[in-house]
Amino acid sequence: MNRPKIQVCCIPFRNEKMALVRRVKKKANTFMQLIPAGGHVENCEKLEESAVRELEEETGIKANNLELKGVISFITRPINDHAICFVYFSNTNSGELEAKEIDKVIPEWVATFNFEENNDIPFYYREFLKKAVKSNHFLNCVVEWNELYEVNVSFN
């Protein structure tokens, strides 16, 4: 029986920009798109520890004072896959952006004033970010691919 995978991602903000990573791993379904830095939670690892670790591993940025903004459930029905991703923001962070996993991701600073128009960011992340940046409420988002691989985004 398949069980949902637990993931985290962390988006650091600085100087009216946010750091995202461009997926350069060819087998990734988000190949060449900009997504939040993140990954799987390791056994016995706290969510916050995982978010800080993944961000630093992928971008060189050290996050402080994490804010849990919401959760995204990624459901891919055709392959019976389900991942639950806890999304953190960091407005207090240090370090310089650095490509540390160049075979997987290349980090980039992205302007916050026009990210909604940036087609390199998958639309489901843009939808989540639009709400998360403007709201102080915890967001519960579902991104679901149906049998035809059409995607639907909903918020509860």
Please tag this protein with its features.
156 residues, alpha+beta, Nucleoside Triphosphate Pyrophosphohydrolase, 9-stranded mixed beta sheet, two-stranded antiparallel ribbon, 2 helices
Secondary structure category = alpha+beta
What's the CATH architecture?
Answer: Alpha-Beta Complex
The dominant shape is globular
Distance between the termini: 27 Å
Characterize the biggest β-sheet.
Answer: 9 strands, mixed
Question: What is the ordering of alpha helices and beta strands?
Answer: EEEEHEEEEEHEE
Q: What is the number of independent domains?
A: 1
CATH homology superfamily: Nucleoside Triphosphate Pyrophosphohydrolase
How much helix is in the residues?
A: 10-25%
What is the strand tally? 11
Helices, by number, come to: 2
What is CATH's topology name? Nucleoside Triphosphate Pyrophosphohydrolase
Name of the CATH class: Alpha Beta
Estimated radius of gyration = 15 Å
Strand content: 35-45%
Q: Are there runs of 5+ residues with pLDDT below 50, and where? A: none
